[in-house]
Amino acid sequence: MPFLGSKPGGGGERRERLIPRRQLGADGLDLGRGERSHRPGRWLRVSPGLLGRANIYARSVAGVTPRASVTYFQAQRALANSGKRLLTNAEWQSAVAGSPDGASCNVSSGSVQSTGANAACISTDGANDMVGNLWEWVGDWLPVSTGCPSWGAFSNDDMCLSGASATATAPGALLRGGAFGSGLGAGPFAVSGDAQPSASNADVGFRGAR
After folding, report:
1. What is the pTM of this model?
2. Domain limits, the chain
3. I need a labelling partner for 81 at 20 to 30 A (CA). Which of 149, 153, 155, 188 fits?
C-alpha cells in the first residue's frame, strides 16, 4: 500500500514480495510539498492543477504505513512515472485469490496499518493486504453508483455498483477490497463505484502492476 517515497532507483529502496510475471505491489506516492491538506467529509476534491504533476512517483515498501487520500489521477501519474500502471478490475480479482475474508486482514481496526502488518492477509500469489487496510483504485471507469444492494447469498462483501447516477458531472472509478473500517463488507469481492476519479479519501489508496 502507499508510501511517501522518492524517485525510483534511490538508495535503500525495499520492495514488497511481488506476484511473478505481473509484479503486483501496493505502491506509495511522493506528492511533493504542500499537497496533504484534508477537509472533513467522505471525499476531498483535488484541484486540476495537482492531477498531472510530473514529480510524483510510486514504490512499494514493506513495513511502511500506506499512502491514502490519493486521487485516481495522482495514482495513475505516479505509477506511470515509475514504469507501472493501475491493475484492471479483472487483474485485481485474479490477484486477490486466496486472500482471507475476515479478521486475518485489517478490516475493523479503524486506522490504516503498515504494509504486511497482518502476515496472514496475503493472496495465493503473495500480494499483501488486498483485503482491508485501504480501498484500492483499479483502472476501470463506469457511471457513478448510488446504491449498495449487496451480493446476496453469494457473499457478504460490499457491492456498490447499483443505481447509476443520471446527474453526476463525472464518471466513477472502481475501488476494490474494502478498508480498515469496512468490517464484514471488506473482502475479495468488495467493490464500489461511488467515487469520481478526481476525489480522494482517507481510506483509499492504490496498487500498481508492471
Report:
1. 0.77
2. 1-210
3. 188
